[in-house]
Write a structure and sequence with these properties.
Residues 374-691 form the Penicillin-binding protein transpeptidase domain. The chain is of the alpha+beta class. The protein contains 26 helices and 24 strands.
Length: 713
């Protein structure tokens, strides 16, 4: 029967009014009888009666809103900070929403002939189908016949794709009396609320056709590169045939022969119900499959460009931690992938491109050493840049062992490890002297002024007990300065500018290294390494080497920590998004949970000392020379920061900031920490940050550093 012929709807007890139907389903005895029919039809005869008492006591007519107005899964879009540049999409289902008049009659005829030939005669449950299934199942002693109408199948689809947990998905399709009773009750109630055309449209927009295509609009594109209106009868029959088992009849990645057999069966059914004449059926069967496979455009979540991959990965981690989007990771991910959010991120595309260029100029793709940088906005915590000389990809097919290091078996320049943000498997990299900032801040908080002068020898024997090693004198930790010429009286300006180790070790002895650790924690430094966590938790007072940065950290943590300084001591946990707009048009703003981690004067005093390493020059004191003059030379504005080098040059860092941006960069071999970066790579993080902050200042050259009024002399 064609879709244009629509007989008056009948119930399986004959014509009744809507009021009568509601009253009927309100009666428990009828529900019991209904459960009996379902049990006999869908389960073996010997097991059908066991669940009837339980089923009969349940209400089966409470209709979920989503069945009438299904929230069709919509991909979410992640934009750059400009609100227009798409940097990623998140979706697990490719769909093309159609109106009823956009669905060709051949598709509807094929669907009705194959799945529900009495669709326009029943009110959601087909009594003939139920009885036919009953006879077949009793004869076979199983559940080979299901008697599910299109309305019932649609109910099952919606319950499945709106499920947010594996248990809910399983419950939507499990073969039990409970589920079948509810499904049939929903179907009957649904047909009181929706027209037949609406049910068919929603069904054909949501049913899965395989190869990532949900709905007939997507299926026509994936299999034939067409809009549905252009499908031939044979093509419509092939697509409808996939509904029963998309994998079994998959003509692209499975068996084209099986697909053709199934297609011909659908055509035969169309002839049987007189939707086609026998001659039309012969013509359709003579047609080849004529496939024209296309990509499903099934994003599955991910960045538009590899340069955005590490940021997008961090965004998704962050989203899955936001309790406002659900009680579990599964619920939150489902909402991101199916909720149709329009999300404005904090990523500055222009600055990201400049940063990527700056990073790759210092260390190109393919290097065994990873060079990466993160930029965070002071006062908001917005992550503006995540750039590294790696492709965000799991593809290792073209990347065997590095020829310069035959023992290395990694896949660079491809990786999905969070090199810039870290996790339990990627604790980070030793930050070296960039950690001296935390000791200086602790001293300033204790009232030590910037001109605190300490005689600093080339090598100093501290009070901290350590084991045997190169930095051990007896059993005491005795670090050295970078150069034997670094001897004499230093204060915070000169000691920080020249990065004098023995000055800061003595400063920590006066203040207490545990206070420096406390400052670092207030500024968001996370201790992901179990060894680091053990020291800072159990032995903070004796953890002297912390002062010189033996602790592992990440560029994201360091950029966010240093961003508190130009923000007058306000620390903002890094955040990758500004807002999300729902399908209903509601805009949800995102703000970092900022906190006044340092006093204003302490922050301003630290900034004044941090101007020395870049040779920008302090406002309240006299700098000597700085370890990163290239930064001050490159940035046409106020700039401060600190270099960081570890013993043996295993890693190298620079963390710098202007009044409105903080950038951290590192270089290391993340796959083989024993592979030292060497002297030839020292300074490359500072070079990269110099170019990044220069570009940032050119784009947004506003603000200045406010000199301290206290803690100077």
């Amino acid at each position: 029967m064609s879709a244009s012929s629509k007989p008056v709807a009948q119930t399986w007890f004959g014509p009744i009014t809507a009021v009568q139907r509601r009253a009927m389903f309100a009666l428990v005895p009828v529900a019991v009888a209904f459960g009996l029919v379902v049990g006999l039809a869908f389960l073996p005869l010997t097991s059908a009666f066991g669940g009837l008492a339980k089923v009969g006591s349940e209400t089966v007519l409470e209709l979920p809103d989503e069945l009438v107005l299904p929230p069709a899964p919509e991909s979410s879009t992640l934009y750059a900070s400009d609100g227009t540049t798409v940097i990623a999409t998140f979706g697990d289902q490719y769909r093309v929403q159609l109106e009823y008049d956009q669905i060709p009659e051949s598709v509807i005829d094929a669907l009705l002939a194959t799945e529900d030939s009495n669709f326009f005669e029943h009110n959601g449950v087909d009594p003939e189908g139920v009885m036919r299934a009953l006879v077949t199942n009793v004869a076979n002693g199983g559940t080979s016949e299901g008697a599910s109408t299109i309305t019932m199948q649609y109910v099952r689809q919606v319950l499945s794709y709106t499920a947010t947990t594996p248990d809910e998905v399983a419950a939507a399709s499990e073969v039990t009396i409970d589920r079948k009773v509810k499904e049939m009750g929903y179907a009957l109630a649904l047909e009181e609320e929706m027209t037949k055309q609406e049910i068919l449209t929603n069904y054909l927009n949501t049913v899965y056709f395989g190869n990532g295509a949900y709905g007939i609009g997507a299926a026509a594109q994936v299999y034939y590169g067409k809009v549905p209106a252009d499908l031939t009868v044979a093509e419509s029959a092939m697509l409808v045939g996939l509904i029963q088992s998309p994998s079994t009849y998959d003509p692209i990645n499975g068996s084209s022969e099986a697909a053709q057999v199934r297609r011909d069966h659908v055509i035969d059914r169309m002839v049987d119900v007189e939707a086609l004449t026998p001659a039309e059926g012969d013509t359709a069967r003579a047609e080849g499959l004529n496939l024209n496979p296309q990509d499903a455009n099934n994003t599955m979540g991910g960045a538009i460009d590899s340069d955005y991959g590490f940021f997008v990965d961090y965004f998704e981690q962050w989203w899955n931690q936001q309790e406002d989007f659900g009680d579990s990771d599964e619920v939150r991910k489902a909402r991101l992938y199916r909720g149709g959010y329009e999300i404005v991120s904090t990523l500055d595309v222009g600055l990201q491109e400049a940063a990527q260029d700056a990073v790759e100029e210092q260390k190109p793709m393919g290097s065994e050493f990873a060079l990466g940088s993160v930029v965070v906005e002071p006062g908001t915590g917005g992550i503006q840049v995540m750039a590294v000389n790696r492709n965000y990809s799991n593809d290792t097919s073209e990347n065997g062992p590095n020829t310069s290091n035959p023992e290395y078996k990694g896949s660079y320049p491809n990786t999905t490890n969070p090199l810039l943000s870290g996790n339990s498997a990627v604790p980070g990299y030793q930050a070296g002297s960039s950690f001296k900032m935390f000791t200086m801040l602790a001293a300033l908080e204790e009232g030590y002024p910037l001109d605190t002068t300490i005689y600093s020898p080339y090598q100093y024997t501290s009070k901290y007990v350590v084991g045997d090693g190169a930095a051990s004198c007896g059993n005491k930790w005795c670090p050295k300065n970078a150069s034997e010429s670094e001897v004499g009286n230093y204060n915070m300006w000169t000691g920080f500018g020249e990065s004098v180790n023995t000055y800061f070790v003595q400063l920590a002895e006066r203040v207490g290294v545990e206070k420096a650790i406390g400052v670092a924690e207030r500024l968001g430094i996370k201790f992901r390494s179990q060894e680091d966590l053990n020291f800072v938790t159990n032995y903070p007072e004796t953890y002297g080497p912390f002062v010189l940065g033996v602790t592992q950290t990440t560029p994201l943590d360091m950029a966010a920590a240093y961003a508190a300084l130009p923000a007058d001591g306000v620390y903002c946990p890094p955040i990758p998004a500004q807002s999300a707009t729902t399908l209903a048009g509601e805009t949800i703003p995102f703000e970092s949970a900022c906190d006044q981690a340092l006093s204003v004067e302490v922050a301003r005093a630290a900034v004044d000392a941090a101007r020395c390493p870049t040779e920008y020059g302090a406002a309240k004191g006299n700098c000597t020379w700085g370890t990163a003059p290239q930064v001050g030379n490159a940035v046409d504005g106020p700039v401060a920061g600190k270099t960081g080098t570890t013993d043996g040059n295993s890693t190298n860092w620079f963390v710098g900031f202007t009044p409105n941006a903080a950038a951290a960069a590192f270089i290391a071999d993340p796959d083989s920490p024993q592979n030292l970066v060497g002297k030839g790579n020292l300074g490359k993080p500072a070079n990269a940050v110099a170019d990044i902050l220069a570009a940032q200042w050119e784009m947004n050259g506003e603000g200045d550093f406010t000199p301290p009024k206290e803690l100077v002399h």
